[in-house]
Amino acid sequence: MDARTLTAVTTRQTGQSDEPVSRQERKQRTRQAILDAALRLLRDRAFAGLSLREVTKEAGIVPTAFYRHFDAMDDLGIALVERAMRSLRTMIREARQNPATYDDAIRSSVHTLHTHVRANEAHFRFLTRERYGGTGPVQAAIATELRLFASELAIDLGRFDGLAKWSAEDLRMMADLIVTAMLGIVMELVDVRSPDPEADKEIAAKARKQLRLIVLGVAGWRSA
Amino acid sequence: MDARTLTAVTTRQTGQSDEPVSRQERKQRTRQAILDAALRLLRDRAFAGLSLREVTKEAGIVPTAFYRHFDAMDDLGIALVERAMRSLRTMIREARQNPATYDDAIRSSVHTLHTHVRANEAHFRFLTRERYGGTGPVQAAIATELRLFASELAIDLGRFDGLAKWSAEDLRMMADLIVTAMLGIVMELVDVRSPDPEADKEIAAKARKQLRLIVLGVAGWRSA
DNA sequence: CATTACAGTGAACATATGTGCACTAACAAG
DNA sequence: CTTGTTAGTGCACATATGTTCACTGTAATG
Predict the structure, then answer these.
(1) Which of these, A53, A98, A182, B224, is most buried using a 10 Å CB contact count?
(2) Minimum-distance CB partner of B224 among A47, A135, A209
(3) Residue B5 pLDDT more than 50?
(4) pTM for the whole structure
(5) Is A181 on the interface with B (CB under 8 A)?
């Protein structure tokens, strides 16, 4: 097997072998293949228990080729974080377009959450798993991104009636609670088992109730 | 070095070598040494990235001796879950002794939470890390135990004023929310960095506020 | 005291891993 | 057309890992 096998990955991926592709286009594609391979393996393993060779084998390339794209496994990890966070941000952007009233916001937010999670299970699974489980650069990267995300949510919350006069600290507290609760919901959704559509409805209902419970607390709030 | 080194672990552990110890007592001790070694390593690694040889080296025994206590690493994992859950249950038992009013319950519960977590950081770190991060038997064991724990909490909640007439499902929903939120708090506490006592106070304050926000929601609740 | 059970050792092996190196075919640039 | 870049290959090697096996000293048993 000679270097013609260079095309092995990309062709397997695109399905058609001979459309002309630029050089960096090709590089991008195998890079993507590595990411996808990793995500595929991460469905039942944790990132820490993932070897370079495994990933490259799954991606259809030779181990040493890995270094053309990443310095080490940790680099792959943070690349995955970026990619997964892009999915998260896309979801948020859509959820943010929804309007004023609490009840509508909850309903539609949970709906878009459910939709996006199901559409990008691998990304969300990676995020929720490695948020706590991961160590080193990966967890750090996720923690940073989620902190940033919670800050934005806190600002969003401040625009709602009844939250306008809350302190930044209290808003942040509430945002953190929401983020943690919803990530718990995400974890239940992407848990490997039960592709049961009935269970999905129950989980979504639970998510709505939890959000509603939190929001109801706002009415009685006075910062201690 | 011959088999007299059999005493290496136990002596290093107890500090005094020649108090008479029964045979199974000795076995129990090295088993404990293995658990402790694992927990020590798990401070900065995830369980998945932990090798049998590493653990035994840290424990001060030879790799093959591991099999006298566990069939495989997974067994070690579930043993760790059991041990960690014992710490959790001990904490709960203490928290449960506290009385009626919401406000007092929150205050004292967060206090005992903080105390116990600081006293058994390794256990709680392991639980929160591997709850999501872990895969296979370990995560399954934690999930089962936490489900059970949430059920008990739901029952406890039902005894409070204003919650007496809630459906079992709603109580469970609220219990899950509390468990998830508090495990998030625990994670912040055992996060490896900042042994800052000032940060501890802020985290505790945040925990109280989150619980208060949830509890306040009860007043306005009507099951959808 | 004689015998058995067994928690621990140490050597050995097959396998998996990360990484360095020389090489090559194809694209890019002149 | 020639020349240089480079994403990929294939080989090689040192190291780490899980697990087997025969063993040994000591506590437990009779």
Answers:
(1) A182
(2) A209
(3) no
(4) 0.91
(5) yes
- CATH number, domain containing residue A45: 1.10.10.60
Q: Which residues contact B38 (CB under 8 A, 6 or more apart)?
A: B50, B55, B58, B59, B76, B80
- Helix residue ranges, H only, chain B: 8-14, 23-41, 52-59, 73-96, 102-119, 121-132, 137-158, 168-190, 197-219
Q: Does A187 reside within a domain?
A: yes
Domain boundary among A70, A90, A107: A70
* A63 near B CB under 8 A: no
- Residue B135: pLDDT band (50, 70, 90) is confident
Residue length of chain A: 224
Which residues, other chains included, contact A86 with Cβ-Cβ below 8 Å and sequence gap of 6+?
none
Percent of chain A residues past pLDDT 90, beyond the cut: 79
Residue numbers of the domain that contains A37: 21-70
Residue type, A59: A
Count of structural domains, chain B:
2
Residues A182 and A210 in one domain: yes
